[in-house]
């Protein structure tokens, strides 16, 4: 663990000098926690930025010890550049903090994060768990790295069916208490999208989220196999006119990359597919569905 953190400190440019920032490490295997001792106060504070970093397949929670006495004039809230790819496990209160309720308890952290990241990169994420059992309580909080994605994610996820549950997704600062009480979410209108809490009118085009990742679409053979598998599955519910899966292009921001769009021959065909595919698992990911405007689809506005 010392080697890991020393390496990360240097790779992220947080080390203030040559040599090892971490001097000592004590690990309590019974309670699954460890103490790290740094050579300087400033580097200790900088290391707080690694909250949420992945270590041997686990997302680490980094906190001060309970008996920590802060040095006067030193704060952990100083502007620290969060290392690339690190998602903090602390979601601070802000206008952009999102509440996600109605999550099936069998979904783990990675699965929920993958679902949320269909809309963009996360700055912070916390799946609330029972302290005694370690199992999910069925709700979470998050914040996107690009706050512009906040309303889009809310509009895209709120009311979505996952298994036998419906997601309740809204800003935590204005609706978390209502959401946990199963009351109606605060309505938010996003230009070009249906109002939150409404599924919107059914169309001939279905959009599938969290079904594939951009990485899976890079290789031509794998891309063609995925297209064929999805088309074959969707043909069970109606006639598929066309299929679009935007692929990643190096150094280009591709709209809708990783989303799957299927155009059916009729609205009833699309509705049958929507009912059958919502909440299904594809490569261990829970599929989320929504209807898409046919005009936008034909204009390739993904």
* CATH secondary-structure class of the largest domain: Alpha Beta
CATH architecture of the largest domain: 2-Layer Sandwich
Strand order of the largest sheet: 6-7-5-10
Biggest beta sheet attributes: 4 strands, antiparallel
- Count of runs of 4 or more consecutive helical residues: 8
Q: Write down the overall geometry.
A: elongated
CATH fold-type name of the largest domain: Alpha-Beta Plaits
Poorly predicted runs = 174-199
Look at the structure and name the CATH superfamily of the largest domain: RRM (RNA recognition motif) domain
User: If you average the pLDDT, what whole number results?
Assistant: 80
Order of helices and strands: HEEHEEEHEEHEEEHEHEEHEEEH
**Overall strand count:** 16
Q: Strand-residue fraction?
A: 15-25%
Q: For the record, give the distance between the C-alpha atoms at the N and C termini, rounded to a whole number.
A: 43 Å
- The chain-level structural class is alpha+beta
List the helices and strands and how they pair.
Layout: H1 2-11, E1 22-28, E2 33-38, H2 41-47, E3 54-55, E4 58-59, E5 98-101, H3 109-116, E6 122-129, E7 136-144, H4 149-157, E8 161-162, E9 165-166, E10 168-171, H5 172-180, E11 205-209, H6 220-234, E12 240-244, E13 260-264, H7 267-277, E14 281-282, E15 285-286, E16 288-292, H8 294-298
Antiparallel strand pairs: 1-2, 3-4, 5-7, 5-10, 6-7, 8-9, 11-13, 11-16, 12-13, 14-15
């Amino acid at each position: 663990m010392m080697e890991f953190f020393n390496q990360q400190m240097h790779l992220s440019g947080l080390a203030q000098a040559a040599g090892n920032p971490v001097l000592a490490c004590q690990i309590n295997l019974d309670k699954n926690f460890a103490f790290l001792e740094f050579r300087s106060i400033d580097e200790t504070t900088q290391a707080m930025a690694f909250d949420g970093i992945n270590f041997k397949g686990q997302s680490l929670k980094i906190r001060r010890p309970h008996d920590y006495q802060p040095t006067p004039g030193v704060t952990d809230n100083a502007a620290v550049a969060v290392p690339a790819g690190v998602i903090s496990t602390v979601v601070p209160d802000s206008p952009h903090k999102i509440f996600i309720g109605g999550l099936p308890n069998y979904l783990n952290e990675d699965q929920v994060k993958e679902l949320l990241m269909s809309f963009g990169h996360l700055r912070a994420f916390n799946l609330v768990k029972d302290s005694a059992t370690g199992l999910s309580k069925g709700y979470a909080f998050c914040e996107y790295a690009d706050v512009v994605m906040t309303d889009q994610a809310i509009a895209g996820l709120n009311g979505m069916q996952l298994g036998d549950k419906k997601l309740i997704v809204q800003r935590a600062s204005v609706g978390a208490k209502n959401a946990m009480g199963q009351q109606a979410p605060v309505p938010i209108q996003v230009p070009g999208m249906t109002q939150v809490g409404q599924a919107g009118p059914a169309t001939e085009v279905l959009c599938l989220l969290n079904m594939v990742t951009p990485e899976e679409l890079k290789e031509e053979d794998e891309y063609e196999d995925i297209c064929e598998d999805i088309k074959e599955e969707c043909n069970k519910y109606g006639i598929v006119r066309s299929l679009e899966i935007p692929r990643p292009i190096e150094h280009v921001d591709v709209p809708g990359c990783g989303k799957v769009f299927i155009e059916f021959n009729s609205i009833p065909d699309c509705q049958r597919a929507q009912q059958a595919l919502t909440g299904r698992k594809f490569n261990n990911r829970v599929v989320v569905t929504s209807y898409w405007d046919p005009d936008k689809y034909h204009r390739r506005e993904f």
